[in-house]
């Protein structure tokens, strides 16, 4: 089928649906929902069999839904309507939630239902639920709706009187406002989670008006409700009336000014002099409830290194801390090191927000990419253990190449990879990609870089980028990873495999030293950071400040590419 995706942006859910439908042989083109005239033009150019709207913030123009079947993905149960579906589900502590695929008509979220899938709710950030449970449910529901459409015998119906869902308004700040003297820890976490990634819960901290993000419970530290009682690695710990919570990220509220998320201690810099640092050992128990970006755990000859950085972004300081942890892991008498990344993202490369906030974004970009390179180099040159990358969540740009540094790479089946840099203002990229990509994907590496499209785990496996993909969810995937790592550590051929790895590295080094790959990449990156062409700085600004799209890039809008080609030919 020819399917047009009409979407506010090419976000994670849209990317996942794109790879799932492309995998099934459908021809997909994408148009960002910018204005009605542009949307109507896109439909005229592409002449789709079906329109899918995975992430829309406005109604579809009548001129379109009257003549084409438009399937809208709504992150709510049958009958649920309104723009804050997940927010309400989290705040109200719904035990079960769902995704409904409905047909667009004159009323927002009120059309006939083509398919719906429910899931069990988890105490987690809205963005985490969206990237995991909602995405899986949306894929299942869209595929079912498409099967029903193809069958030609299905008639969608309006939700019956018994449907549990209902219309709910846009959730405002008054609905989520935290009262630190009254609210308990659970309520505070739900309020912050309901607004994380966006818009955040507005609050006051040390005299600063801020939006709060990246919250988790603290199990030991205690203090007077509302007080900031500790800090750790960019996060602050705030006492509640029955415990304490950590807040990792803040966004300053300055009327009339655009701001962006930064680590809490960076935003509150200067007001935290009396707040003690609360150190935590690298190998603190996984059962602890506390703020822990990097964690190391050992089981049966295998070391597991977790690095759960908010949004997968890795600043200079985070890369350096992770490198130190990795070096410690290397000193352990283990046979396998598994790089676990975070639960929602494996890694998204250098930290664009920290770079944007720096006095010299060019200098900070340079420091950050060098810190990333140091980490990648340490992984590539590990000669006394075998390494595995276990991608529970998505990886993008430098984060995807960080994974390629490992000897074996596995991904959860639903993971989406973006192993390319060009979308960030034609960034050349480093992380030794010029060595790692051809080593894995050969000639096809060039295409992957040029296409700038997301790759599903199955396709990444076919291309040789990863070794295998499995697991319907994070728990299933993690259990299998553990089994594979244990088996590898106990494999009778382990020593032979390790010797083979050392030989291959020595051969590669003799052919072209790693230092040369790095120097070549960094020479190009220097031009991106310090050269005449400001594209990278402009693209980073637009990304960090969430500047809305004003057109759909041609690598996504296939229908517009065709038109341009004809114009050129004529
Ligand atoms: N630095 C800082 N923040 C980052 C980031 C990075 N490298 N990558 C992602 N984020 C943040 C986004 O700003 C967004 O923040 P929010 O919580 O305020 O919404 C959040 O992570 C999720 O990103 P989003 O783009 O909404 O997720 P997605 O799943 O739709 O897309 C990517 C994933 C990887 C395609 C996209 O985030 C991306 O292009 N990131 C930049 C990668 C990059 O160029 N890195 C630098 C070169 S190594």
Between the first and last Cα atoms, what is the distance in angstroms?
28 Å
Number of strands: 22
Q: Could you say which structural class the secondary elements and strand pairing correspond to?
A: alpha/beta
Portion in strands: 15-25%
Q: Look at the structure and give the mean pLDDT.
A: 96
Strand order of the main beta sheet, please?
A: 2-1-3-4-5-6
Annotation field: number of helices: 20
Quickly count the domains. Answer: 3
The level 1 CATH classification of the largest domain is Alpha Beta
Shape call = globular
Helix content: 25-40%
**CATH homologous superfamily assignment of the largest domain:** 2-enoyl-CoA Hydratase, Chain A, domain 1
What are the low-pLDDT stretches, counting only 5+ consecutive residues below 50? Answer: 565-570
What small molecules does this complex bind?
A: coenzyme A
Question: What's the CATH architecture of the largest domain?
Answer: Alpha-Beta Complex
Largest sheet: 6 strands, mixed
| Rg measurement, Å | 24 Å
CATH topology of the largest domain: 2-enoyl-CoA Hydratase, Chain A, domain 1
Question: Would you kindly provide a written description of the structure presented here, covering whatever features stand out?
Answer:
By secondary structure, this protein is α/β, with parallel strands linked by helices. The protein has 3 domains: 150 residues, Rossmann fold; 89 residues, Methionyl-tRNA Fmet Formyltransferase, Chain A, domain 2; 235 residues, Alpha-Beta Complex (2-enoyl-CoA Hydratase, Chain A, domain 1). The chain contains 20 helices and 22 strands. The longest helix is centred in the N-terminal third of the chain and has 26 residues. It is globular, with a radius of gyration of 24 Å. The structure holds coenzyme A (COA). The site of coenzyme A has 23 residues, from helix 10 and strand 18.
